[in-house]
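User: My notes are a mess, but here's the protein and zinc ion's SMILES. Can you give me a structure?
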Amino acid sequence: MQYEDWHTHNALCRHAVGSVEDYIKKAIEFNVDLIGISDHFPYEYLSSEIPSLGDIPYEEYAMPLYDLESYILQLENLREKYIDQIHVKFAFEIDYFKHQDYVLNKYLKKYIDKLDYILGSVHVLFGKAGTFAFDDGRFLNKYKEYSGNDEIYLEFYDSLQNMIKSPTFELDIVTHFDLPKKFDKKVNDKDKIMGKAIETLKLIKKHDLTVEINTSGLRKKVKEQYPSIDIIKSIYDLDIPILLGSDAHKPEEVAYEFKSMTKILKNIGFNQLAHFKKRKRSNVEI
Ligand SMILES: [Zn+2]
Ligand SMILES: [Zn+2]
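Assistant: No problem, the inputs look usable. Here's the predicted complex:
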C-alpha cells in the first residue's frame, strides 16, 4: 500500500527543521507515493490590520512574505527533479482570521493558480483571552482566563465555522479538527462539544470540503490523532471525504503512523481517500 501525505512543513516557517528537498527525499525513502508541501502562509500581511496581532510571535509561525516567490520556484524545480520518484503537490496551510480575507487574497492571488489545494486552519483565537495561539505551549497560561476548556473548544469551532462559511476565504481541506485537545485538555460537557463538532461537520458537508486526518496529535501530549475516533465515525456517517496528513515539522515525521491509521480508517468503513490536483478533488482506493 502506498501513502499520500498532504500536510508537511519545512524550515521556511521558522519552527520546522529541514529543507523542502529533505522532506521529499525522506518521503521517497519511506516509499510514500505523494507528498504535499503545505507550509504556513505568511502572517505579517495582517499586522497593520489587527493591532493585537503584535502580541503573537507571528514571525515564528509562518514563512515571511519575501519567501513566497522562492517557495513556489523551489517547488517547481523539485517537482521536476524528482518527477520519476514521487508526486509533489503544491499547497499552503492558511490560518483563518475574521475579516482578513481581503488582505489575504491580495497576496494569495498571485500564487493561487499554482496550488493543488489549500489547508484551512485555526491556530489563533481572538476571544475571551485576547489574541493567542492556543496550540503554542508558551501561551498555556491563557487557558486560565477561561472558565474551563469547553469555552476554548466553542471559540475554536466558532472560528472554524466562520472560516468554512466565508465566501471569500479559499480552502479545500479543514485541518486538525479538534486541535484544542493538543495538551490533553479534556472537555467537560462532552455532549455539548460533540454537538458543536457535528454542527461544524455538517457545514463542511454543505460546502463540499474535505477533512484531514492528522497524525501529529499522536506525537503530542494528547497521544491521539486529530480528530478523535468518535468524530471520524461521524465524518464517515456524513459521507465527508478525508485524507491523511502527518503535519511533519521534521523530515522523519513524513507519513507518521500512516500504516496504523489507514487500518483504523478501513475498520471504520472507509475504502477511499481524497486526492487533489489543481484544486480538483478525486478519490484513491485504500
Ligand atoms: Zn507549524
Ligand atoms: Zn500544519
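Residues 7, 9, 93, 247 surround zinc ion (ligand 2) (CB under 6 Å).
User: Great, I'll file this with my notes.
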